[in-house]
């Protein structure tokens, strides 16, 4: 029987698992928080099942997924596994390459965890779970920032002394690379041509915008860590460093406290005072919550501003792609972001937009100069492709 590859994708607000036989998907699961504690959505082919459990079960999501797959006859003995690939979101030139996870790799992760704790903490936790449950399984780190190797100097650098940038490895690494690569590739298939000058908006718990020319990234909103750029669910996005320092001083926060404040207490949660979840904010807005309205307005304005800036960098725009949980399932946000952007060539067909809450498709009008698409992120497929390439060398 063909070997099975296990894909593990720990995010800032959820985690996903997938089984592949070669490049053929077998099953997947998404685990996230729910009012009852934890919610797991299992899928295999046309079969979808949902289970809820206590919040403490979140740490046991991997064995839960493998047990479900066994019960469905999709998985046999542990020896079937060939290798596992885990998505790595971590700042550092060393993490811009796919690599085997060994002792040195783990030590490097621990060193950088304070600069991207939302992702590195969940990554370390998931690595421990994997090595605990499947100790003999070869484990590879699949870089989420490898896609941005080779970006222009203007996208990679901060305006600091070059010697310090090199000495301390302070560069703009970019993230959501696996997602962006997957949707740009899919856009080319759907259009049967190169998408040209493209902006990809990955809008979920984390939010990033990327400009591409010839499918190559030339600018990206996330930088040294996934904290930079657009406002997100609980992350501030870009903030004046002096303002961040002032918050730390006035709230009597040490470095860890300030990091937690900017990563976990800010963004849409901080602006609204209620929640960082876009769907919940839309419901609150309907109920007349002014804080929700203001937070959503700030969010939409920031996205609009990034589209304008990146269209300028690209010297024009041919294709706009929405992806990520919000980008794929929230037509109201897509509509608000695109409203008034006809000067860029962006004109939505509102009927198409409102109708598309699942799957992929074009939502721009027939005569619009810019093709606007919704394409579900294909991170797991990109990870499987990279993993199979690594183990077959």
Can you give a write-up of this model?
- By secondary structure, the protein is an alpha/beta fold.
- It contains 15 helices and 14 strands.
- It has an eight-stranded mixed β-sheet with strand order 5-4-3-2-1-6-8-7, with helices on both faces. The protein has a six-stranded mixed β-sheet with strand order 11-10-9-12-14-13, sandwiched between helices.
- A hairpin with a 2-residue loop joins strand 4 and strand 5 (47-53).
- Helix 7 (241-250) crosses helix 8 (255-264).
In short:
With 393 residues, this protein is of the alpha/beta class.
Features:
2 domains, alpha/beta, 8-stranded mixed β-sheet, 393 residues, single chain, Nucleotidyltransferase, domain 5
Ordered list of secondary-structure elements with their pairings:
Elements: E1 4-10, E2 14-21, E3 24-34, E4 37-44, E5 47-53, H1 61-71, E6 81-88, E7 99-100, H2 103-112, H3 117-133, E8 139-143, H4 153-156, H5 162-168, H6 177-191, E9 198-203, E10 207-213, E11 216-220, H7 241-250, H8 255-264, H9 267-272, H10 278-286, H11 290-314, E12 319-323, H12 324-329, H13 331-338, H14 350-355, E13 361-362, E14 371-374, H15 379-391
Parallel strand pairs: 1-6, 6-8, 9-12, 12-14
Antiparallel strand pairs: 1-2, 2-3, 3-4, 4-5, 7-8, 9-10, 10-11, 13-14
**CATH class call of the largest domain:** Alpha Beta
Helix content: 25-40%
Tell me the total number of β-strands: 14
List segments where confidence is low: pLDDT < 50 over at least 5 consecutive residues.
none
CATH-level-2 architecture of the largest domain: 2-Layer Sandwich
> Number of helix segments?
15
Please state the structural category.
alpha/beta
Major sheet: size, sense and barrel closure? 8 strands, mixed
In order across it, which strands form the biggest sheet?
5-4-3-2-1-6-8-7
Say what the CATH topology of the largest domain is. Nucleotidyltransferase, domain 5
Distance between the termini: 21 Å
How much strand content do the residues show? 15-25%
Q: What is the N-to-C order of secondary-structure elements (H for helix, E for strand)?
A: EEEEEHEEHHEHHHEEEHHHHHEHHHEEH
Query: What is the rounded Rg?
Result: 21 Å
Globally, the shape reads: globular
User: Overall mean pLDDT score?
Assistant: 94
